[in-house]
Design brief:
This protein has 250 residues and is α/β, with parallel strands linked by helices. The protein folds into two domains: 159 residues, Rossmann fold (3-Layer(aba) Sandwich); 65 residues. It is built from ten helices and seven strands. The strands form two sheets. It has a five-stranded parallel β-sheet, sandwiched between helices. Strand 3, helix 2 and strand 4 form a beta-alpha-beta unit. Helix 5 packs antiparallel against helix 6 and helix 7 crosses helix 8. It is elongated and about 60 Å long. It starts with a strand and ends with a strand.
Length: 250
């Protein structure tokens, strides 16, 4: 069984033909539970944070030690892949490479607010990595001037991640010609997160990989305490964790 954790990065993409069991954005314990369910390959794209604990590094090590391939890309997956690559987690895509080589450092760059899984995790804000790719492409094509690109980027960086929309960015940049500029950004929008997430799906579909593990994970009292809580939560839960209408994912 191959399990894919994805939300806003692939919200409008049908992955049914990829022979993956698709679940929503991962929270702490979801990778552990996927291993217990029999997963032999796990793809981590999106992960929840803020109002629930995020994916724990140690549950990734738990999966890897048991011979389960864990791949990450695009969002939380890119972050965890950069942090856990020394232990055998596989990173995929440009965003992962930027985290791995230090060009990206903050999880703010991939964070988005989105609708709940019942509404297909539709994104309600734009990720900074997508904004940067879009502005760079427009500047390279001379569709926006260098000073406009600089002002739009400064405005995007200054906004809280949940407020990053093209409308808010253009308003804060105060360039003028707001409506044509907003239309231009949407028309030429580059979704780098989606591109990387699709690359992960393709890699999981094409091959099964087994991690080469030369280490052993310490089973600490904290690990036992947390995992017992996760299993108890799963047993007592009748469905997904109830949350607000808007969720944050990286």
């Amino acid at each position: 069984m191959k399990v894919l954790f994805a939300g806003p990065s692939l919200w409008n993409v049908d992955t049914a033909q990829a022979a993956l069991q698709r679940r929503g954005p991962a929270r702490q314990g979801d990778i552990l539970l996927a291993v217990r369910d029999g997963a032999r390959s796990i793809g981590l794209v999106d992960g929840l944070f803020g109002d629930v604990p995020s994916v724990w590094h140690k549950e990734i090590l738990f999966a890897l030690e048991r011979g389960v391939a864990v791949l990450g890309a695009a969002s939380m997956g890119a972050l965890r892949a950069a942090e856990c690559e020394a232990f055998g987690m596989i990173g995929v895509g440009e965003i992962y490479r930027r985290y791995a080589d230090g060009r990206l450092c903050s999880d703010d760059a991939v964070a988005q607010v989105h609708a709940p899984i019942e509404l297909n995790c539709q994104p309600m804000s734009e990720a900074l990595v997508n904004i940067e790719a879009t502005l760079d492409a427009l500047a390279a094509a001379s569709r926006i001037a260098p000073d406009e690109r600089a002002r739009l980027w400064t405005a995007a960086e200054s906004l809280f991640f949940a407020d990053r929309t093209f409308e808010h960015i253009v308003e804060r940049a105060d360039i003028g010609k707001a409506l044509p500029l907003i239309d231009l950004l949407y028309e030429h929008r580059i979704d780098l997160k989606r591109i990387d997430a699709l690359a992960l799906v393709d890699r999981m579909t094409q091959a099964h990989e087994t991690p080469a593990v030369t280490w052993r994970m310490e089973t600490t009292s904290i690990w036992r305490q947390v995992t017992e809580g996760i299993v108890s939560r799963e047993r007592s839960s009748s469905g997904p964790l109830a949350e607000g209408m808007l969720h944050g994912s990286t």
